[in-house]
Structures are given as structure tokens and as C-alpha cells.
Specification:
about 120 residues, mainly alpha
Length: about 120
Amino acid sequence: MCFSKAPYLKKLGRLSILPGFFNINEPLLFGLPIVLNPALAIPFFIAPIITVLVTYLAFSTGIIPGMAYPLAVEWTVPSIFGSVILTTSLKALVLVIINFLISLGIYYPFFKAYESKLIKESMD
């Protein structure tokens, strides 16, 4: 969103970086709005399902070790740090990056469609 051609999305993306890093996503949920936007609601439901399946496979196959300290991290700790603290393994960090890329790939076409719709509406 930070590199969007739509000024509103660019501003919202820049304002949402810091809260999003700490898992506070309400600016995006209500600012886009994902809550009332069926086009963005589709990836909002699909991406977590797929990333949970990938994470489950990584844990169940033993690629990522089990959680060593499941209560050691608050939900506001950034995932890149929390995953390593919880599992005591850098492999978990790689999994977080993979899940991020999967989510990015799922959201991207929907976001670009929404962006073009906003640009088209602003021209009218």
C-alpha cells in the first residue's frame, strides 16, 4: 500500500506500518475498509486458512520444532521476534517470512483491483 498509485491507499499504508508491525491492524480493517468490502474480504478469509495449513504442516512434520515457551510472548510482539522466542528456532522466522509471502501473493491481485477501482472513482 505504501507504493500505491491511489493517494488515499498510500497514506493509509504509511500510517499503518508501525501499528501493523505490532499486530494492531484496525487501521487497515476499518480504513480500507476490509470490514465492509467484499472484494477484500475474500483474501481476508483465504490467506489465514492457507497460512495455518502451511504452519500446521511445518509443525506436524517436524520441520519447525514445537513451542518451547508457549506463554512467553504477548500478542503484540512482532511475529519475526515472537516466533523465534516461542520455538527457540530460527526456522520459525523463515516460516513467518514464507507465510508473509503467501499472504502477499493472495492479497496482491485483490488489492490491485481495489486500487484501480479507487483510481477510476477519483477520476470521475
